[in-house]
Amino acid sequence: MSRAKLFHLPGCVWHLTHRCHNRDFLLKFKHDRKTWLHWLLYAKKKYNLIILNYSLTSNHIHLVVYDDGKRNVIPHSMMLVSSRVALEYNKRKNRSGAFWEDNYHATAVGTESHLHRCLIYVDLNMVRAKVVDHPKDWPFCGYHELTEKRLRYCLIDKPKLMELLRINHPDELKRIYEGWVEQSLSSGDLQRESIWTESIAVGDRDFVEHIEMRLGMKVKYREIEEKEEGFVLKEAWKKY
Fold first, then answer.
1. Does pTM top 0.90 for this prediction?
2. Which of 5, 73, 81, 137 lies 20 to 30 Å from 106 when distance is taken between CA atoms?
3. DSSP codes of every residue in 145-162
4. Total domain count, the chain
């Protein structure tokens, strides 16, 4: 995975990924995945983190969030969750040393078609890993919140997500999202797509060029590349 990009531009959706140290399976137990979700909910309440989707695997996490311009909400939230999870795990296991692999990576995602593809990519993580056949069978992803009406604790900000996707009603979101997932499953195209986890930005040309302009000198060596999925802003040395 590419080194972390710790900039966040207001008004953007960000897909965050964070791996366990040395890609070890430190999240393989249900207890530790529940701990991560617990602290994510705490961060949401403490910092008003706007969560659009999430997924946990045995050795890394995916989190889709929206930056509403409030200073340092995303980095503060990620620091809180990652540090608490590591502290509790090391204490319980009588372990020392790093739990996470450096910092997390952040990719800016264009809205509408690119956002919905990113959401599906996140929810199908454990299907690609052949752990489950359908995201409904994996309790540690956002699919359940996006397709079920009543849950005790909700992480996803459905009103904001519907606004970004231009969907007017939760029932419509459920119907449309289930359709997107079923279409992806039936296509059989479940390969890993590095653009969602290693690029600086993914979207249409206008979006990617806008991100490049706003970043200025924060990323010195970069290039825009057209791909089947759209346009990608990446580090010039990075090959996909």
1. yes
2. 137
3. HHH-S--SS--B-HHHHH
4. 1
Residue 59: give its domain's CATH number.
3.30.70.1290
Contacts of residues 162-171 at CB distance under 8 Å and 24 or more positions apart, as own/partner, are 164/13, 164/52, 164/66, 164/111, 164/112, 164/115, 165/111, 165/112, 165/115, 165/116, 166/112
Instruction: Pick out the chain residues at pLDDT < 50.
Output: 1-5, 240
Q: What is the pLDDT of residue 238?
A: 54
Instruction: Find the radius of gyration of the CA atoms of the chain.
Output: 17
Which tens digit of pLDDT belongs to each residue from 189-239? 788 888 998 899 999 999 999 998 888 766 666 788 888 778 999 876 555
Residue written as tokens 């795990």? 89
Q: Within a domain: residue 29? A: yes
Question: Is 181 a member of any domain?
Answer: yes
- Per the domain annotation, does 8 fall within a domain? no
Strand segments (E) across the chain: 13-19, 50-56, 60-66, 105-109, 201-203, 222-227, 230-235
Phi-psi region of 86 (alpha: psi -120 to 50; beta: other; left: phi over 0): alpha
